[in-house]
């Protein structure tokens, strides 16, 4: 299931596998054509430069590339003939989408755990509730990548929520802005 394409020293297509035909949108009529003339189904702007480097140094290159909602590990290796002559490069694309998705999930989880630890440390270090809530809003904004964060407090007996701390709010709104607390409002 690894998409493989063989390019000569001028980066013209010599051979390719079935998965390469599907991934790169190549067909039998493309054999002999320069690879750069094609519009492959994957974003790989560094392929030709990496291929040149492999031909110069004879050291394989690899890079993560994406296209069509999938991620691939692209490897470029020197292509040797049976008499050990360099005839071009072999380019392979292995689907690593599931690995990338898991890595992203782990990264998000690490960020969340670091934020929880930071909030715990803030709780130990800061005794002023307003300063603490302001710092909490900043940590949450950074962790979530959100330009707008609010910490609301329910006012006793009024059925309203007061903005106690936040990030991204206009000057003067923190401490003064109030919102309905009922089911019909977003914060409620």
Describe the overall structure:
With about 190 residues, the chain is α+β, with helices and mostly antiparallel strands. It is built from four helices and eight strands; from the N terminus they run ββααβββααβββ. It has helices at about 20-25, 45-55, 95-125, 130-145, and strands at about 5-10, 15, 60-65, 70-80, 85-95, 150-155, 160-165, 180. The strands form two sheets. The protein has a five-stranded antiparallel beta sheet, with helices on both faces. A three-stranded antiparallel beta sheet has the order 6-7-8. Strand 4 (about 70-80) and strand 5 form a beta hairpin. The longest helix has 29 residues, at about 95-125. The chain is elongated.
Residue share in β-strands? 25-35%
Structural class: alpha+beta
Main sheet characteristics: 5 strands, antiparallel
Number of helices: 4
Tell me the series of helices and strands, N- to C-terminal.
EEHHEEEHHEEE
Helical content stands at 25-40%
The parts where pLDDT drops under 50 for at least 5 residues are none
Strand order of the largest sheet: 2-1-5-4-3
Q: Can you give the mean pLDDT?
A: 91
CA radius of gyration: 28 Å
Strands, count: 8
CA distance, first residue to last residue: 51 Å
User: Any idea what the shape is?
Assistant: elongated
